[in-house]
């Protein structure tokens, strides 16, 4: 269980990344590999930067711009492609497995993603949006799209929000919280909706505490805390 009474650890405050570092956080992607893999499975072609071919970079800010668009089924697949590509990077381990999951039932995948995107943009709670993609036991409602990548989609689906509340949770971040003894029994694979809600609440609290202690304006964003947790060495 996540201890919501835990104060912001000094190591996180002292290592806090800047807002610009979050927005500019970029990864390299092999767009040709992606387009070939999508074509082989009869999935929609990836648009945007993917269409330029070759090696490209994708930043958080660029995906937020996609998430800011009006949710549609077609657009939801594009948002997922970008979120997946950003999360997988150049090596893109298990790319074929994840795309196979989408190809099993692309209509179901697109409808599910659109519902999640719409919920995120409507201001629904983190646990409510999480439930659109994940079961009560933490299983993905779309094959091969587990909670870690599900939360990446949710995070970007919120668009260009000044204070995002649907935050990325993956095994690295969960492991860091376990080391900090904030989440002693943390799992690194699946999380129930209530657990995800608590995680988002904790990072929101820590962002507010960091804002107060650093006396900064604009306030610290919760995703600054998330990225710091991911990067910090403990």
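^ structure tokens above, recovered residues below v
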């Amino acid at each position: 269980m996540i201890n919501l009474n835990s104060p912001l650890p000094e190591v996180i405050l002292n290592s806090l990344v800047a807002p610009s570092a979050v927005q500019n956080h970029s990864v390299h992607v092999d767009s040709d590999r992606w387009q070939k893999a999508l074509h082989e499975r009869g999935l929609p072609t990836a648009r945007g930067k993917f269409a330029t071919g070759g090696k490209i970079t994708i930043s958080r800010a660029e995906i937020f711009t996609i998430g800011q668009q009006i949710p549609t089924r077609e657009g939801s697949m594009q948002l997922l492609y970008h979120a997946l590509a950003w999360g997988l990077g150049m090596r893109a381990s298990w790319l074929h497995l994840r795309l196979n999951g989408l190809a099993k039932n692309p209509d179901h995948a697109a409808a599910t993603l659109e519902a999640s995107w719409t919920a995120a943009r409507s201001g629904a709670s983190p646990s409510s949006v999480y439930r659109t993609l994940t079961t009560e036991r933490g299983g993905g409602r779309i094959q091969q799209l587990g909670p870690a990548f599900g939360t990446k989609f949710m995070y970007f689906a919120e668009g260009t929000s000044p204070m995002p509340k649907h935050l990325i949770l993956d095994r690295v971040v969960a492991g860091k919280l376990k080391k900090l003894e904030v989440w002693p029994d943390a799992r690194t694979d699946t999380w129930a909706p209530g657990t995800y809600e608590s995680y988002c609440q904790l990072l929101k609290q820590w962002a507010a505490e960091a804002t107060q202690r650093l006396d900064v304006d604009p306030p610290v964003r919760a995703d600054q805390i998330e990225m710091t947790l991911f990067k910090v060495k403990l």
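Residues 10-231 form one domain.
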